[in-house]
Amino acid sequence: MAQREGGQSAGAHCGLSVPMVVAWPLVIAGVLALLAGAYYLGREGYSQRVLSAGPRVEDVRRIAKLAVLRVQVANVIQGDTAGATAVVLVKGDCDMAVDLDGIQIADKDERGRTAALVIPSPRPDRPRVDQSRTRIYELRKTGWALINPFADPRQDLLESCMRAAQDEVEQAVQGAEYVARAKEQAELLLTAFYKELGWSVAIRWE
């Protein structure tokens, strides 16, 4: 890995491990949006006997993004420039989210109360580096910086390592395993939601 900051180049070698995956059923805002959307998606009134009109694109899009999986990542970053070297153990996380803005509804059968939702595949969302758990194991001057009291490239190198770590966190969760888990969580959530409205919904992924 190479980083360039203020005319200085930094090389970084990363070793990635993903020790923990946390199922993230839905962010609070998403839950509130789903409940609010239920009013518009349809309801069955006991006295008026009003039947649900079923899924509508404009209602589902109100949810915006559905966070369905959170992946915890530990990342070792080593960076070097002409005047500094750094070794940092970076810990962070990234959500896998479904962007419902691109949703489409197909094969809607009002008599049979069935429909299919065509949804974009989950993608990484909000990769984060946890500063409280990140540890700096080495950060020191090297080479010409040792004899130059006015040169201290250590902070620039550290910032480059942190940016590289955030990119690595995002890349780590794009593996097939995490995409599959995110799809499974999204399907469970959406099918259960529409089942409460009296509809059987199938999920199709783009």
Describe this structure in words.
This protein is α+β, with helices and mostly antiparallel strands. It has one domain (2-205). 28% of the residues lie in helices and 41% in strands. It has four helices and nine strands. The chain has helices at residues 28-41, 57-60, 154-172, 176-195, and strands at 2-5, 8-23, 65-80, 84-99, 104-109, 114-119, 123-129, 135-141, 200-205. Strands 1, 2, 3, 4, 7 and 8 form a six-stranded antiparallel β-sheet that branches. The longest helix has 20 residues, at 176-195. The relative contact order is 0.22. The model is unreliable at 1-19, 22-29, 36-53 and 57-61 (pLDDT under 50).
Give a quick summary of the entry.
The protein has 206 residues and is of the alpha+beta class. The protein has helices at 28-41, 57-60, 154-172, 176-195, and strands at 2-5, 8-23, 65-80, 84-99, 104-109, 114-119, 123-129, 135-141, 200-205.
Instruction: Report on the biggest sheet.
Output: 6 strands, antiparallel
Task: Determine the N-to-C terminus distance.
Answer: 32 Å
Total count of strands:
9
Judged by helices, strands and strand pairing, the structural class is alpha+beta
Radius of gyration: 24 Å
Number of individual domains: 1
SSE string, helix = H, strand = E?
Answer: EEHHEEEEEEHHE
- Identify the overall geometry: rod-shaped
Indicate the mean pLDDT: 75
> How many distinct helices?
4
Low-confidence runs of at least 5 consecutive residues: 1-19, 22-29, 36-53, 57-61
How much β-strand is present in the residues?
A: 35-45%
Query: What's the helical proportion of residues?
Result: 25-40%
